[in-house]
């Protein structure tokens, strides 16, 4: 729940220093709005764009890499944490309530940029016409390195909380279950890309499949918006992983297992972690994850419904291209049905306006009987 603000000024630049050796760090921003404001359901696209624009203003080359790089993304962002309510076709933020936003980085290059950036933060973040004042900025996940994660102390099990809907890609479909191989594959991809201590993926995942046990779990699933296009079924909740007795025969993999668990809060879990999905923390919690505002759930369901229709119509062509077009048509049409202008949709999706206009016409035509 949101917390009411006190009438005081917070120095958001205090205690925001870390060494040049740092590879991983997480920040939490506190926002406040001076009046009730409404934001569009897929506002995490705007948060994503704002962050990249901040990088671009300081380091255009780094921004291009974060935007277009073919490797794993070396950052994550969360959705807003606070009192979010549906208001017609939009999501409302209440005046004088606090809203929290988490940003993590996973490489020394981005960490060094962020350390400079936080010394001169802007006063506000704009989501289209909604102004969010930056009230404070603090360290949420301690500055560290991959080597420190690997060599730090650990317990007998790895317990993870999935705070925002989490999903994986499996055989071309979304897979909303935290199976050990999916979870640790997700972390290993980031580890191999950024740690400088690459591990044989096939061998490690075979070991995970044979030796990592689910001790207990408490999970629920929901449909959510997925970044720039489409919707996914994701899960939230808590899970505890343990190891078999035979696991100790490969001590290096045991050590990596615990290190990857500690990496989870920094890198998130699954896909679309740069658009708010897969936010992960350590420890067990029986507390339910924050509910997704109804307008976001309705839009996610409509996008999925339209995607299924368009995919079925394009069944003959098949392939990834057909699926991608179906998803784009569905996203554009559903957002237009929610009252968004095609100009803003085109801007969000980084597509030419004329292309978006053509796609919405084709999508509407495809829905007509006969």
UniProtKB/TrEMBL annotation:
Organism per entry: Brasilonema sennae CENA114
The protein's name: CRISPR-associated endoribonuclease Cas6
InterPro entries in alphabetical order: CRISPR-assoc_Cas6-like_N (IPR045648), CRISPR-assoc_Cas6_C (IPR019267), CRISPR-assoc_prot_Cas6 (IPR010156), CRISPR-assoc_prot_Cas6_N_sf (IPR045747)
UniProt lineage: Bacteria, Bacillati, Cyanobacteriota, Cyanophyceae, Nostocales
Xref: Gene3D superfamilies: 3.30.70.1890, 3.30.70.1900
Single GO BP term: defense response to virus
Residues annotated as transmembrane: none
Domain CRISPR-associated protein Cas6-like N-terminal residues, every copy: 35-139
NCBIfam families: cas_cas6
Positions of the CRISPR-associated protein Cas6 C-terminal domain: 160-280
GO molecular function: endonuclease activity; hydrolase activity, acting on ester bonds
Presence of the UniProt keyword Amino-acid biosynthesis in the record: no
Keywords from the named record: Antiviral defense, Endonuclease, Hydrolase, Nuclease
